[in-house]
Amino acid sequence: MANLITGTLENLARQMSNSLLYAKAESDDILKIYFQKVQTDIAGYDATSAVTVATRLTKQEMENGVTFLQQLDKFLDGTATTQGDYYATCINLCNGKTAAEAAVSPATEAVGTDLKAVATTMLDLYQKSKVIQDMYEDNEIDTIVDNISAERVIPGSSVTAALMSSGVTMARQYANFLGDSSVSTANYMSTVTNWQV
To answer: Mean pLDDT by 10-residue block, N- to C-terminus, for the chain (197 residues)?
Structure first.
């Protein structure tokens, strides 16, 4: 049974790592386009004005999404993040309320669509991070990891105790980050990269 659990835990941590790598790349692209073009395109709108047609985002929701991506970058890069309810931000990005009558610009529509895609992934990751934590603790994988050498491969998986521990720590801190709790700062991008091997 433990082998099945550790194998499943490894797969979930690897999926989380892959999704964070995707989100980082998307975030870089979104922020670049936003600051080069979209910020100017929506400058004349008030905060409650709809600025996208397809994703039905207001200017404020888009700005909140940009702030979220900036904080996600800080989380991954090991810089202190500003605490916020990023879970609610992602929900709002996924469930835009008011469609603009016409597209403000193609770039604004593209950024809105990409923000929604990243937010959807981030909400899925939040759920996975909770499952990872529960599996790790409820099945006493944490006890196994604590009692074997850091470089030893965990039975039922292909990862070392150190890599599993860092993956679970990243999952726990990601859940804190999205869930408006304090986050322990670390270079989680390094953890993401280590899980790619």
So the answer is: 78 94 96 98 97 97 98 95 95 94 97 98 96 88 82 85 92 94 93 88
pTM (2 d.p.): 0.92
With b meaning 16 or more CB within 10 Å and e meaning fewer, what string describes 114-146?
Answer: bbbbbbebbbebbebbeebbebbeebebeebbe
> CB pairs under 8 A, 24+ apart, for 8-13?
8/135, 9/132, 9/135, 9/136, 9/141, 9/157, 9/164, 9/168, 10/154, 10/157, 10/158, 10/159, 10/164, 12/128, 12/131, 12/132, 12/135, 13/132, 13/159, 13/164, 13/167, 13/168, 13/171, 13/195
